[in-house]
Amino acid sequence: MFQSVLDVTHAMQNAVAPVFLIMGAGTLLASMSVRFGRVIDRARAIIAQESLDWDELHVLHRRAKLLQRTMLLNSASIFCVALTIFVIFGSLLFELDLPLVVPTLFSLSVLLLIAAVAFFIKDFAISLRVLEAQLDRARQNGRG
User: 94 pLDDT exceeds 90?
Assistant: First the structure.
């Protein structure tokens, strides 16, 4: 149980870093969601056309799956950070000594975030590679 206001203050100070991580991961998640939505919208636009571009649809499907994994990893990271904050306050509230749980959860959340960012970067690389191929095709067809 909290013995004084200083205990509560100390617990809040310990929870500040995880809160900033949640804010950053949440902002990243919003950006990932926008990219995911654009990929889905583009795929729907291609499907609505008379002649389907199966190559582009294949790439868009690959990107959508990659972004889905990215958002899943990022959400798991946010969950681990929230759990970290819960454990910080819970351990003080119930006077539990959990010296390894908080750093383990926080480290796991950072690792999940790193993996999510790596997948996010891979999506950018795929997007750029497709754009470069489309530019080359346009140039070869005399449109550039």
Answer: no
- CB neighbourhood size of 95 (10 A): 9
Sign of torsion over alpha carbons 101, 116, 15, 85: negative
**Residue 140: how many CB atoms within 10 A of its CB?**
9
Compute the distance between CA of residue 30 and CA of residue 12 in angstroms, rounded to an integer: 26
> What angle is formed at CA 33 by the lines to CA 56 and CA 59, rounded to 5 degrees?
15
Helix spans in the chain (H): 5-48, 54-93, 101-140
The Cβ-side half-sphere exposure at 87, using a 13 Å CA radius, reads 17
Q: How far is CA 30 from CA 71, 87, 97, 109, 112, in A?
A: 9, 26, 36, 18, 16
Distance set, CA 19 to CA 11, 51, 95, 96, 106 (Å): 12, 49, 22, 22, 11
Number of other CB atoms surrounding residue 2 within 10 Å: 14
pTM recorded for the entire structure: 0.85
The predicted-structure confidence for 17-29, as pLDDT tens digits, reads as follows 888 899 999 999 9
DSSP three-state, residue 24 = helix
Q: What would the two tokens of residue 132 be?
A: 């470069």
- Which structure tokens are listed for 4? 């004084």
Q: Which two tokens stand for residue 33?
A: 């969601």
